[in-house]
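Hi Prof. W.,

I finally got the MotA/TolQ/ExbB proton channel domain-containing protein prediction working! I wasn't sure whether to trim anything, so I left the full sequence exactly as given:
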Amino acid sequence: MRRIKILKIFFVVMLFIVFTIYANFSLVYTFFMSTLTFNVAITTMFLIGLLVVYQSAIRLTMLAGTFGILAYKTGKSLEFYLEGITGLMPATIAHMFQRRAKKGVLYFTQQEAHEVIDWLEGQFFQQKGYTAFFVGTSLMLGLFGTFTGLLVAIDEMGGIILSFGGDNIDIGEIMTGFSGPLGGMAIGFASSLFGVASAIILNVMQYILTRNQSAFVEDVQDWMKGKIVESNNTSIDSLSSTDDIGNINLVSNSDNSSPMSAGFIDIFVDTMGDFTDKMERSNQVSQEMFMKIADKLDHNIHKTDNESILLKNMIEIMKESNVNQYSNSKLIEESLQEISSVILSEHKTIKKSLQLQEENNKLLVQLVESLQNKDNQENKR
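And this is what came out:
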């Protein structure tokens, strides 16, 4: 992704303008003072338009830096930089980038890529509308000042012509009277000069900004093309598995026997991430429950030898069941990394794991009921 150097270009342009004004300061000052009313209004429009262009240039630089970080940063550094982008982008787009960065996989669907590009183009188009307004307003004020100056000049010239009555014509008075038409012409030309100059400068800076915006949008499009994924190129016919959870056979259509795209793998990993987290939390809860039951059984084991042997066996069975369940969840996580070979059978593994969980829960309920019955019998004795 190319670096945006628009602020440096604007600095050079403004330096050239300042140098030109400084070199011709007396002439510019004379033109400016010829008609303060129009020139102040034109200068105000020019400064506001210049501020809008500079603000857009700074925003473009920030956007370029943000997308550059998205393209080249990874891990915690990427998450750190993305914490403050909500002030630069819409909440939906910023949340999407943050969520993908936390998952460690940065990808886009076709619709998401279109939304990002449309938002960028909409921002740039809106800024162009503001600049066009200030350019047009500067030109209209200059043109209005031109017509006003011409009207003043014509009116003053008419007064001079009408004063030519009689034989006594004072040349000095006539020359003095020409100051009125000349003043009107000064109003017209000065306002036109400032209006056209303001419009030219704003148009030049807007052209530079537009070129950089177009280059930035092209870079973003090229970058996002490599991150766009399509999940419709693969379909699943059926899935069969053996009695062992670890041995899984995959059955799919011959039309879809080609390897899955990396993008679809990323989508699956992102989708299954929350599920694996829930499975791990469930395993932790089960482990705590098993430990509590084991402690209670160890506390009551001295009552009868036969019951103690039975309870110990049950504890071992439960521990082995928990280990198997934990290994099954680890197998799910590892299978996500090797998704190209086991992705089509993942739901069977999950189903078996859930069934095993239900059976364990039933055993736990039966064990608790047995312990309660035993306690009740002992209390009756």
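The chain has twelve helices and two strands. Does that look reasonable to you?

Thanks,
D.
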